[in-house]
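Q: Protein A?
A:
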Amino acid sequence: MLRAVVFDVGETLVDETRIFSRWADRLGVPRGTFLGLVGACAATDRPLEHAFELARPGIDVHAEITRWAQDEPGGLRENFDADDLYDDVRPALAALRDAGYAVVVAGNQPPQARRALEAMDLPVDSIRTSDEWGVEKPDPVFFARVAELTGVPPSGIAYVGDRLDNDVLPAADAGMRPVLVRRGPWGYLHAARPEARGIDVVDTLTELPALLG
């Protein structure tokens, strides 16, 4: 019996369009071009970092983030806020809690992401990031931490994400119920792959209460 639902962050809860658009401006390339490079990385199973390398060969992304913070200390830069949430997030999370599930957010994110998510006052029980755990998906240790956090055996947890490789397949390997949300470049591409057969695929998070019920 499912007792907890755990969510990835980027392109599961947060629409990253504005983030990548600001990065395009920072890198001095057209927004459509940079978004296309991100999509190309998703389609060819390349790390996201390759999009930055293609846009600006030799870039040190972490150093660029530091310079960006110095240039625009009051700007949103590579971060996100409540305006980036997908419209279905709040009603879906609230409906799941009303149905009796523990609702948790846990994804590969830097430390400031937890503060940003907590500032949104989402209807969730816990928020954690890979940075504070010191381990990233798809490492099995990450999903063991998820189970520890919820206090629920893996068989009682549904993990919702937009990627097969980072989210739903390793969650399934950990004994959790995998759910793929079909949005963002990875979500659309991965939902069409043979590996997605037999995995629950949703187009909106508001489908979850009925699907998991």
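Q: Protein B?
A:
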Amino acid sequence: MSERGMRATVFVGAVVAVFSFGMATAGEKGQGISAEEALKRLQEGNARFVAGTPRHPHEARQWRSRLEKGQHPFAVILGCSDSRVPPELVFDQGFGDLFVVRVAGNVVDTDVTASIEYAVDHLGTRLILVMGHSHCGAVTAALDLLGHPDGEPAEIVSLLYRMEPAVMGLPKELPREQRIERAVSRNVQRSVQRLSRVPDLRRKIKANTIQIVGAVFDMHTGKVGLLK
């Protein structure tokens, strides 16, 4: 083979190697990322969102094509179904970055738990973040309607009762908005507690291989604040 042919072969091989590496990186993006690093990525993305300088990463067709081979999101987000709080935008992430489970009031039931366990056990995700939000309609409904659920479908009443512990016992002298704010935080903390008691997840927490954290999204500022 001529020297020119050898150079061409080496060049093509290098291009293929780089392209193949890029595909592996997309498919394996979440593997090996610690919960601490995942949380840092979320916080950095939210900071960009708040500052009005989002990058809108991982939206290109080439990136989406690479993901056809598999997914390894770096974080699980359990959030509310509210149309005003899309996690991918709030954290400035793109296709394949987040494994999102959304249900009104970010409550935990069997289906939610199973979905989260799938991401942890089969996709290698190490961070679970439960995100509530200000002005949550589900929490507000639980606060206002649990004492008078007449007229609501049984399914809605069942959902509201899942949030009952978060709204019970709040000081009645507090203004309504403050009661809702406290109930939102308590509801997030309750979901974190319920997930932390799931045997599969509890074992991984004790082994320090995953973390479950709670947070609240402020719809006015756009900031996601972690709960202690």
